[in-house]
Design goal:
Number of helices: 6
Order of helices and strands: EEEEEEEEEEEEEEEEEEEHEEHHHHH
Strand content: 25-35%
Radius of gyration: 31 Å
Oligomer: single chain
Distance between the termini: 61 Å
Number of strands: 21
Structural class: alpha+beta
Helix content: 25-40%
Shape: elongated
């Protein structure tokens, strides 16, 4: 409480305060209405205070709220009835699935405003926008993310393409609620702002919906790690369930080519060089062992397909995208080309330094294999729109299947070396049977993954 003595020429005053409920819940920069002083001339010189009709001051570009407990409630309730809903995976419910990326818009009568909701798992920010097309650029967007101060904030911005969006005044925004729990960021707010892109303006116009999420650094959003868009333009004044656009065909081709390459020819090249040297040792072609020619052929195909897949992806994106997947992909391509070059420049089998090539060639091959598996996992993570992430689970099964057979073939190789004299032909038969069994299972996993990519 503050008591002020009578002052003849007192000026209006506005209070700024911070309120703390507990460690996790507090409010900053809370402003009062402007206080104006009036003197009552009919009595003794006293001063009374009355509230004017001016509104509290709010930040022009961001609305700040600390994550409270519990998180704000956002669900699919009334989707298609009173509000427009847009999500990935399709038709997911954020109230039941933490991996659901979701936004909704409910327009008030006579277009007096829109109540927006958005939620999703991210280590930086989530955002949705309105666009004239399905590509980033010239879009009216709202961002919900963690700022440099550690508080969740709502921002209004205009996307200019592949450069950071331009911040806009927050405008007529009210009823802002935000939270973040276990990396699930949620925001809801009411906006009386109009929607404006380069070519279209108005709440009753149709726009493509965009959704993106990614990391942030010191409150500044970084390049998104994943996005999804609507299949067609949407009028948010008409409640409906918005369908998510499928992947571009060129990206599907990239994913399919990389899967086929590294689950067949890439794996075959490694396995032949390690486990098949003792087969058909008395037969040769063009003066070279059969296993060596197979190894060179499938390895060359693997490198060529990797380069083609790299070109397909970058020709579509036309820029560097964020996240681990492009980094891993570039490493795989660089090391694969290096592996091919080292193979061409290798020294002879009897050279005293041959062991250097043998070890470096083997270690680089294992590194490429590990990076390729990581690249496939991160790539599937970007495109897997299934509710239970079954593409990731299938790939996990494929990785386990491959690991089992590599271990089995290693044990069999050591057993074969120790018993070559007694069980030579039988050992060869077992090796071939293990190879056949492995590739039957591997191709089964591959077909399942290709079907998943086709439906993404």
């Amino acid at each position: 409480m503050w008591k002020l003595e009578a002052i003849a020429d007192a000026k209006p005053i506005q209070f700024h305060a911070t309120f703390v409920q507990n460690y996790r819940t507090f409010w900053v920069n809370v402003t009062s209405r402007t206080l104006a002083f009036t003197n009552d001339s009919s009595g003794p010189p006293t001063t009374s205070i009355k509230l004017t009709t001016s509104d509290p001051t709010v930040p022009s570009k961001t609305a700040l709220h600390h994550p409270a407990s519990p998180a704000i409630s956002i669900s699919r309730g009334d989707c298609g009835l009173t509000k427009v809903c847009f999500s990935q995976p399709p038709n997911c419910d954020p109230a039941a699935n933490a991996d659901c990326y979701f936004m909704s818009a409910q327009v008030f009568p006579r277009n007096e405003g829109v109540h927006f909701e958005m939620t999703g798992t991210s280590n930086g920010y989530i955002a949705f926008g309105f666009s004239d097309d399905q590509a980033m650029g010239n879009d009216d967007i709202y961002i919900c993310g963690v700022g440099s101060h550690g508080l969740v904030q709502v921002q209004h911005a205009f996307s200019t393409g592949r450069t950071p969006p331009q911040a806009l005044p927050l405008g007529n925004i009210s009823d802002v609620k935000t939270s973040v729990q276990d990396k699930v960021i949620s925001c809801s707010f009411t906006s009386s702002n109009s929607i404006s892109t380069k070519r279209t303006t108005g709440l009753d116009e149709a726009y493509h919906l965009l959704f993106a999420h990614g990391p942030s650094s010191n409150g500044k959003i970084q390049y998104h790690t994943a996005t999804f868009t609507s299949t067609s333009k949407v009028d948010i004044s008409r409640p409906q369930l918005v369908r998510t656009a499928r992947l571009p065909h060129i990206i599907k081709a990239h994913g399919a080519l990389m899967l086929i390459t590294w689950m067949t020819s890439g794996t075959l090249g490694m396995m032949v060089a390690r486990y098949m040297k003792g087969i058909a040792t008395r037969q040769s072609l063009w003066g070279k062992a059969i296993w060596f020619l197979v190894h060179v052929a499938v390895s060359g195909v693997t490198v060529a397909a990797t380069v083609i897949g790299f070109i397909l992806a970058f020709s579509h994106v036309k820029a560097w995208s964020g996240g681990a997947h492009p980094v891993l992909g570039c490493l795989v391509m660089i090391l694969s080309i290096l592996q091919l070059m080292l193979g061409l420049m290798r020294c002879g089998p009897q050279h005293p330094q041959r062991f250097v090539f043998n070890w470096s060639h083997a270690l680089n091959g294992m590194t490429i294999k590990a990076l390729s598996v990581a690249a496939i996992f991160t790539g599937l993570k970007l495109i897997d729109s299934t509710p239970d992430q079954w593409l990731m689970k299938v790939m996990g099964g494929s990785f386990g299947w491959e690991a089992i057979f590599f271990i089995s073939l290693d044990f069999h190789l050591k057993w074969k070396i120790n018993n070559e004299d007694n069980l030579g032909s039988k050992m060869t038969t077992i090796t071939i049977l293990l190879f056949v069994l492995f590739f039957v299972g591997n191709i089964t996993f591959l077909v399942a993954l290709l079907v998943g990519i086709a439906n993404s």
